[in-house]
Amino acid sequence: MTTYWLSFTLDSRTISGKSYDDRWAALNTAINNISTNWWRETTAFIVFETDANLSQIVSDIKAVVSSSYDIVLIRSLDTKSARIIGPVKDQDIFKLMPYLERA
Question: What's the pTM?
């Protein structure tokens, strides 16, 4: 099992027929499908354990969010591995996390 954290911001508009609420629910369902142990007490941050690898997690998350409008940052706590999905405006994230790759 590996522990990951995921931070996200979802655009408020309806995209491809999916509202903010639809995408939020789908994101949480995607985590539920790969993990039975998670923490979600803050608004847009989830810590979870899974046997899935980072590529699998990214694939599952990309399937339920809008890569053009939503931003999702995923990092493994066990290694310096991280991926970011979506339009990144502030490039400082790549300086702060030099191991970060675009998904």
Answer: 0.94
